[in-house]
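[audit] Reproducing an earlier prediction to check determinism. Same input, same settings, fresh worker. If the tokens differ from the archived copy the diff job will pick it up downstream; this log only records the rerun itself.
[audit] input (456 residues):
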Amino acid sequence: MRNYSYYFKLGITWSAMSSNQITSRLNGIGFVFDTSGPTLFVENNILYFSALLNSNTFSYFIDFFSQTMNKGTGDFSRVPVIIENVQEIEAIASKTIEIAKDDWSSNEKSNEFQVNELLRTKGQDLVESYHLYQQYWKNKFFNLHRNEEELNKHFIEIYGLKDELTPDVPFENITILKEETTIENGKLIFHADEIMAQFVSYSVGCMFGRYSLDKEGLILANQGETLEDYLTKVDKAESEVTFLPDDDAIIPVLDDEWFEDDIVSRFYEFLKVTYGEQDFQKNLDFVEESLGKNIRNYFVKDFYKDHIQRYKKRPIYWMFSSPKCSFNVLIYMHRYTPDMLNNILNNYLREFIQKLKAQRNHFDEVQVKSDNSQEKNHAIKQIEKLNQMILDCEEYEREILYPLATERIKIDLDDGVLVNYNKFGKAVKEVSGLNDKKAKKKVRGFDWIDVSEIRD
């Protein structure tokens, strides 16, 4: 180890490999560094140095010393340092950092995340909330842009580079709202589909008790926590809770309303609680218009893909799914217990199979008794579809879920998602880079786990 006396101290870090302008950030306390993520430590005026390293003046000098994409500590050490106008520059830098922190904290992957932004900027209905959201973050964006140009102007004057540089910063270089917006023809364009996907993701978090409408921030985020733990943390009785999480942390995600408490009905409830029953249809229409499809299709076809991408292939909600996806339920890994697979098997999968068979019997009667050829043809198609779904679910029960349920699999969150997800073999949905063949081979190479628990 080199320079280990500086480990875990506050500094300014940057990515050594970059083809673009240098972008540095305060690393906070508690982090280490290496050659790919070097860190600068200063005794005084850390905000001043943070502003300097992010200026186009600093990049101007770095380009003299490094003609490659690698921007290391040696290159940085050659840049001359002039310290002037410290108080004014640090005041602007402080405001700029706060905007960047607010942006990161609005992301539910952040440790500082409190509440979804549409609910924080809440209006009379979801449409008004969306407009307030745009107004709020547009102001943040342009304040940040103005601050960065002002800092560039200061350093250009300090270093006497008026003939070499301008303080201009392209909108594309502003690093907040990268998922929610794009720059098109010089204008900041908000993407309603992404913003609404974040809202839906937050609603699912509330369904599982990860978040709460009664208390901001993380609620249930420790292994094996229960509904009782939730009530303790929000400090309310069950009858007083605004939106009660799912009691068994198993939520069906199916092509129709086969269960009263499926993910669509829970979302309807969430929408009514957050924005009122009187505007429910208006708000639902806006959600579906923003997503570009009805909410059931989104949950069945898109939600898990979005979740996988949002959490960089390390999902916190896991999809247990039959081979042809006729049956799907979501669970929350922090509320997983060894009895959960038995619960999925007995209270959801087997019940679903019985419902499919009852529906098939209904269409069998229609096919036999109806004199209407159109009704008969529809019944035949539905019988064929239901037969395929039943076969899919029975195979899932017989070959996959029942054998795993008898093992009462345990997980340890400290082992990470990659290890724990692969303990469930084909019971969970396959995700490239998480539980495909290449990923399983990687996991089986770990020497700190019992690899016999990793299942194909």
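[audit] rerun output stored. Observation attached for the diff report: The CA atoms of residues 254 and 328 lie 6 Å apart.
[audit] end
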